[in-house]
Amino acid sequence: MANASSTSLSTPELANLCINAIRFLAVDAVQNANSGHPGMPMGAAPMAYVLWSRFLRHNPSNPQWFDRDRFVLSAGHGSMLLYSLLYLTGYDLSLEEIKRFRQWGSKTPGHPERGLVPGVETTTGPLGQGFGNGIGMAIAEAFLADRYNRPGFEIINHYTYAIVSDGDLMEGVASEAASLAGHLKLGKLIYLYDNNYISLAASTDLTFTEDRAKRFEAYGWHTQSIEDGNDLNVIESALRAAREERDRPSLILVRTHIAYGSPHKQDTFESHGAPLGEEEVKLTKQNLGWPVEPAFYVPDQVLEHFRQSVDEGKRAEERWKANFARYAEAFPGLARELRHAMRGELPDGWDELIPIFPANVKGVATRVASGEVINAIATRVPTFLASSADLDPSTHTSIRGMCDFENPQEAIRDPQGSAGGCWGYSGRNLHCGVREHAMGAMMNGLAAHGGIIPFGATFLIFSDYMRPPMRLAALMGLKVIYVFTHDSIGLGEDGPTHQPVEQLANLRAIPNLVVIRPCDANETAIAWRVAMETQDQPVALVLTRQNVPTLDRTQVARAEGLRRGAYILSEAPEGNPDLILIASGSEIRLILGAQQRLREQNVNARVVSMPSWQLFEAQSQEYRDSVIPPSVRARLAVEAGSTQGWHRFVGEQGDVIGVNRFGVSAPGEVLMREYGFTVENVCERVLRLLRGMLKA
Ligand SMILES: Cc1ncc(C[n+]2csc(CCOP(=O)(O)OP(=O)(O)O)c2C)c(N)n1
Q: Which of 134, 446, 536, 652 has the fewest Cβ atoms within 10 angstroms?
């Protein structure tokens, strides 16, 4: 079924049976679960059928085959559409699982979840995200194809398809991503739009009346409109035309009817997110000529027809493997590189060029140190891709001289801001423009596609704009790296709109996201190593705008300690500590200063660098107790951000110097002083803490 030539096999009757099988698996599963979204799969089944049976090149026996077409169901609430297709085409998803839709421990959760359901490329549900993920996947394909294909060897050559809905198109993230996809001329990106004029709570007449085709044309997309979403031949022709259009992404607007075939629910918003009801299920089956019983009925010829995908998929992968073997003979170096990339492995010697920074009292901003590390890694890791939301001069995240990811046909009119080198799809710098939402969603697509290690950069304050995709990256366990600079009120004059306060606490609250705030250049280098070596978790690096001293590691512990999340940076001078001082990032300088000053007052303080809560919490209790002994209850934490959560480490009797109000526009040093980030204030708070404990 992978190529159109097999369409002659599918009589209209058989096609109709197949489409109704998709529809009624969805209807029955939702009815059985008494929860879910039947309407969308019922309306979109014909386009999904045409795509999956006549175009999609995939291998149900190996959902990981690298050169498969990618398919994203961006309207994740219509998950039963995807589960039906996966079951019918022979993925490792049984009919029993379909019957257990939305139940505890099933492989058919409410919304498609990558990693849990075989064949699901990306977790969708929050509308608009899948739309952006698909664009990341198409970028990955274009990048890898440009870098690795050679004449006669189209090793990387696949399409990215998605089904998107009104909700997807309404969400802002889709506008950002569509705008960039149009600019980049991603010709192998093809989206089918389930244009049914109904959303969750209303008809789109109440909310969404722009001319969608014109909107996408203005973005630079190729658009086609189909009046009848049940006309398979027209859908097939449109998909064919979209595939032939190589210079623009495609949107095919398909007029469909939500809950198609339901006598009382078709075209109503009630059918969007609730079971049809037993009586209506019966009437709908009768209306479409489907047996009322049994539920979950799949005619043999339907299964047989869909299951041709299994053999076709195997053959397609075998052909690809044979071609890859010839490629490896002709281009052994490239093939080795690509194999590493496809497996997500780092090449030998990937870290050889990462610098060790000499001690320096004046120091360097951790964003600047990070920039040096990035360039050292990029030289050795060819699929390490930088993206930036128009802030790379400030975040120091350009991969210098290693080309810009741009459409190669595009004439460069004004190259300001270019990273230098060539201009094309093998460019290592993906300029996202001022589009953080899209950057986050696209990075998930890049990582989910595989073969690429993406990182993206912006100011910490604007992590707020990327939080939804960051949450999904963490949920999926994707290897995405975030570089967030300008990490505190210490950034200064830009004022409270730009000064993060609650962002660290916010990011630390996301399960499975590793947040690291290194204290100096050498911790930054180790933080990058951790980020590169971490496989199934996103990592956020939180960096300063302002200089911080590069610590003399002959006087304090080695920066390698960062790997454990927290470590004793400087032991209490007299051994057993009276007090533990804990900080991260730029505030380490203060607690080191306080340690010296307190010694003069006979207070014996241990200094703990705690760049990452998550890494620390992953350590054994024994290790954690060795760094923060339970017996030492006098503890003070210092961090230029919300104090929320810090009591977990300082305990009930401990104290925290933080920022629990918005910042102010003023020079960073002034602000830090006024907000109590001085050695004097740290010492004063320590003495107060110790006095209070004596009294208690
Ligand atoms: C970001 C986000 N906001 C809200 C929702 C809740 N929600 C689920 S589907 C939907 C709208 C559905 O409209 P449409 O996309 O046209 O899907 P259809 O009604 O055609 O199934 C909403 C608001 C969501 N899933 N994601």
A: 652
